[in-house]
Amino acid sequence: MTRKFSIIFIIILSFSNLFAQIDYSKLTGISKMKLDTLALHNAMQVSKNTNLLQEKEINPDEYKVGPGDMFEFSVTISEPTLLNIKVSPDGQLLIPGVGTIITKNKTLTEVYKIAFERIAKVFKTTNVGFVLSKVREFKVIVSGSVSKSLSVPSSPLDRVNEVIERAGGLKFEASLRNITLIRGDTVLHVDLLKFFLVGDKEANPTVEGGDQIIIPPSSEKQQISIFGEVGYPNEFEFVEGDSLSTLIRFAQGFLASAYLDSVEINRFDTDGKLLQRNFLNLTSWENILEIRGNLKGDFPLEIGDRVYVRILPNWNKEHYVIIKGEVKFPGKYAIVENKDRLYDLFTRCGGFTDEASISDIEFIRQQEAEKKDYEMERLYKTPYPEMSEFEQRYFQSRVREKRGAMAMDFQKVVDEPNSDQNITLYNKDSLIVPTKKNYINVQGRVNNPGNIVFQEGLTYMDYINQAGGFGYRADESETFIAKAKGEIFLAEDNKYKLEPGDVILVPPKEELSFTEIFTQTVATTAQLLTIVGVVYSLIKK
After folding, report:
1. Which secondary structure element, helix H or strand E, spans residue 306, and what is its range?
2. From residue 332, how far is each of 327, 337, 348, 428 by CA, in Å?
3. For 52-80, what is the mean pLDDT?
4. Count of CB atoms within 10 A of residue 218's CB?
5. Which of 17, 270, 320, 509 could cross-link to 475 by cystine, CB 3.0-4.6 Å?
6. Which pTM value belongs to this model?
7. Which three-class secondary structure string do you get for 384-452?
8. Which is the CATH superfamily of the domain at 223-311?
9. Burial class (CB in 10 A: 0-12, 13-18, 19+), 43
10. pLDDT beyond 50 at 122
11. What is the mean pLDDT of the chain?
12. What is the third-level CATH fold of 439-506?
């Protein structure tokens, strides 16, 4: 009997909690994924298709003319003449009828100026054109932590990241911030993280012929980190010159929930021991992503520095309740916690439909449902036969419980808004308004289980008879009534009143084991043999 009820209660409990809200933030152990170099792989994949595509028009004051650049020269005197002229491998540009221009180390503006001065001396007309029509291609050497070190065809329009992608892309352990670009006797520093995170184009320069790009591996021992109320809490590779503002920009600035009055900065020695802990007021940095130039109070960071941005005291991401079922406008409603009440919610959702069963509303307080019962957690892991009598009784009583369920007189809330039943709402409260039920559900060992229209005054046996009577191996004495609100009554006790929505359940008789059948058979046989022996003795006398 006890075991039957325990199983049934667990089943009923599992259905009753279906509508309880789940706070998915509790399902942690799932932290934010480590920064995928801010989708660097996706960004560099796009660069495969950007060969010779321009970001914008070429700046003639910056563009250096070199071997392979193509110019278009046109002049109209008696008849139009159009020529395509290419800068020679040694850097000379020969304009027919005009002369040669040495382009080495000259910008496009300088080449234009020389060309037009010389053209003007030869052609006495204004119908002259001279423009750069096609940019050159050249080789750039890529080596280090890339899929394969090789020479890559490139153009003056390509940035370092695009050239690296043509070399097969970065290896997993490659540094993004300590890339070296060697250009003759000049060594340039490339910081792809700064380019992708902050949009610093100078950190990802365009290439020139003969450039060599060297990508070293990164080091987990050279990092700075930021955690808390920022867009991307993470650890970042450290580069000399990084400042507090650099790190915050890498983390995509502050969230609205950030407590900027006391941002914590910790500095450690080489043994990992805390050297300094400072708290800074960074209120003026609230819109750091929109600020260009230096920031007041900025300072350089060192390897191992950690920054913590706290959440605002009493910060609430959202306060809401959910109401489902037979109301005109079911859904999620924002509330002012400890102010809005049940009646306010009923009004805002448009009231109940004609099919609503107000007396059967289920109200689940999620904050109560989430409270841990450590004793039950322990008992769930303990086999039932190994429990003490007290533990079994405790388990049976608590397993029946609807976690977070609130017993309320909702009809009174509707009729008397000033009553004590009109309680205040809390974050994540849930209300399920069921449809009216005008039937009794008869299940289990009956011949025709199903719903039977409710009639006032009928007993449980009346409904069982309407369901075709008890079926094979029905345990008639264990028939029980499950009330719509969760109470359980033995049918024979008559300590209840049948109401629409109630369930009459007829369980099967317990099956006898082979051992039990064998034992009973042996005992019965022994008794019969004893009787036969006595009768035989009497007859013989």
Report:
1. strand 306-311
2. 12, 14, 11, 9
3. 83
4. 19
5. 509
6. 0.53
7. HHHCCHHHHHHHHHHHCCCCCEECCCHHHHHHCCCCCCCCECCCCCEEEECECCCEEEEEECECCCEEE
8. Outer membrane lipoprotein wza domain like (3.10.560.10)
9. middle
10. yes
11. 82
12. Outer membrane lipoprotein wza fold like (3.10.560)
Question: Do residues 247 and 301 make contact, with C-beta atoms less than 8 angstroms apart?
Answer: yes
Domain at 40-54+138-215, CATH class: alpha beta
Contact 87, 103 (CB under 8 A): yes
Tokens of 433: 């308004």
Q: How far apart (Å, rounded) are the C-alpha atoms in residues 218 and 224? A: 13
pLDDT of res. 396: 78
Q: State the Cα angle at 315 between 311 and 319, rounded to 5°.
A: 145
> Residue 172 carries which DSSP code?
T
pLDDT at residue 4, as a whole number: 46
Angle at 170 between CA 169 and CA 174, to 5 degrees: 175
Backbone phi, psi, residue 91, to 5°: 90, 20
The CA angle 317-321-326, to the nearest 5 degrees, is 155
275 with 268: CB under 8 angstroms?
yes
CATH fold for domain 70-134: wza like fold (3.30.1950)
Instruction: Tell me the pLDDT tens digit for each residue of 319-369.
Output: 899 999 999 999 999 988 778 999 999 999 999 999 998 888 889 998 888
* Residue 413 CA from chain centroid, whole number: 38
